[in-house]
Amino acid sequence: MTLYNYFRSSASYRVRIALALKGLSYEYIPVHLTRGGGEQFNAAYRELNADALTPTFVGEEGQLLTQSLAIVEYLDETYRDPPLLPASAVDRAYVRSLALQVACEMHPLNNLRVLAYLKQTLEVSDEQKSAWYRYWIDLGFSSLEKKLSSDKRTGLFCFGDTPTIGDLCLVPQVFNAQRMLVPLDSYPTIVRIASHALTLDAFKKAEPAAQIDAA
Amino acid sequence: MTLYNYFRSSASYRVRIALALKGLSYEYIPVHLTRGGGEQFNAAYRELNADALTPTFVGEEGQLLTQSLAIVEYLDETYRDPPLLPASAVDRAYVRSLALQVACEMHPLNNLRVLAYLKQTLEVSDEQKSAWYRYWIDLGFSSLEKKLSSDKRTGLFCFGDTPTIGDLCLVPQVFNAQRMLVPLDSYPTIVRIASHALTLDAFKKAEPAAQIDAA
Fold it and tell me: At CB < 8 Å, which residues of chain B contact A?
């Protein structure tokens, strides 16, 4: 198995956590998202990933997969232990909704190409760019905190006491927020879950700083 | 079953297609996203949906679900006929990646609250706002067209000759693009699939213009 990815890419980080939790080994091929204008735009990489996004996953039989949550669901269906989704359809929908809240409502607004558009095309100031970043983090984390702090299914992790795809999305998003110096005092449940997750070897192994391409 | 939704909301439209394909009847409760500053911000609605987004789905036993793709996966797991995902894990991942490409890379950048932030906070011009809209549509549709026009799994629909969650995301995104007058001449496969889908009763029934809250 091969993962084309970037140490600091949030979507790559999600897949690394899943691979580590499943105990799967893989070849790590770095795709530097900023060096030389971005290696994701190289023709060779775009043959693998027309979107010029990371990660790209290549499975044991050469299956080429893109989109982090599609890759994670594939890993969960193919390598079942430990499961990354609960057993009942309703609980699965709840956990998926937590993951999608990060993946659809927060991360897309703050990824590299969006920030580049704001800066280069709309010519916003650095202050406006930071305010934009914080705005979407705060909007998303406020409602996630509300859910996680009130739902009885919350445990050591987003759902119960073992990691699910909710945590796979939450932890990289907390990493991003911290890197951008967004204050997280208003989100104690989120911070508690992310801190707990990072006590596990699988989450530690997937952290940006532990990757071969870490700056 | 109840669906709180808005006729023109792309995420609502996805769920309506799934419900129609499964032949499920439901109560339609309109949540007007612009009237009176947006009914999604009303306290009563936020009790159901902390994110103040549509749709919100309430199942037969009162299960409260949010996030369109989580709801669609729930419906597919609970009401299996017809299936909205292929049988093999690799094909499922491929179809999910098509859906996520719309749901994570295109739609989040062009939804109402993002356009409102651009206009009100960043004070961009109407021209800049339209250019932003077109930019993310073109970026997403370009790579989707490349995939769909070259992948052997493409049929009358995104995957084979029956609808999947890929089509559930694609058709509302095409509707959005057309409404915003984005030229689609460069995306013949996408246009062909969306046009074919709209010959089916289930897709017609889910169309914005067919809803009780249509303007």
Answer: 50-53, 59, 63, 65-67, 69-71, 73-74, 77-78, 89-90, 92-94, 96-97, 100-101, 103-105, 107-109, 114, 117-118, 121-122, 124, 128, 131-132, 135, 143, 146-147
Which residues form the domain of A46? 2-82+203-210
Q: How far is CA B175 from the centre of its chain?
A: 9
Instruction: Give B138-172 pLDDT, tens digit per residue.
Output: 999 999 999 999 999 999 999 999 999 999 999 99
Q: Hey, is A198 helix, strand or coil?
A: coil
Residue B28 covered by a domain: yes
CB atoms < 10 A from the CB of B212, how many?
A: 8
Of B66, B71, B100, the CB nearest to A69: B100
Q: Please, where are the H alpha helices in A57-125?
A: 68-78, 89-100, 112-116
Domain count, chain B: 2
Whether residue A36 is predicted with pLDDT greater than 80 in this model: the reply is no
Closest CA to A13 of A190, A136, A197: A197
Angle between helices A165-179 and A10-21 in degrees, nearest 10 = 140
- Residues β-bridged to residue A65: A57
Q: Over the stretch A68-96, which tens digit does the pLDDT of each residue have?
A: 999 999 999 999 999 999 999 999 999 99
- Taking only the tens place, the pLDDT of each residue in A135-153 is 999 999 999 999 999 999 9
Q: Give the Cα separation of B71 and B26 in Å (integer).
A: 14
On whether residue A215 sits in a domain, the answer given is no
Option in A53, A101, A128 nearest B122 (CB): A128
Question: For residues A46 and B197, what is the distance between their CA atoms, to the nearest angstrom?
Answer: 29
Give pLDDT < 70 ranges for chain B.
none
Do B31 and B49 form a contact (C-beta atoms < 8 A)? no
In a domain, B215, yes or no: no
Q: Are residues B32 and B133 in the same domain?
A: no
CATH code of residue B133: 1.20.1050.10
Kindly report, residue by residue over A158-179, the tens digit of the pLDDT.
999 999 999 999 999 999 999 9
Tokens representing A23? Answer: 């105990």
Select the residue of B65, B97, B114 nearest A65 (Cβ to Cβ): B97
Burial class from Cβ neighbours inside 10 Å (0-12, 13-18, 19+) for residue B49 reads buried
- The answer to whether position B102 is within a domain reads yes
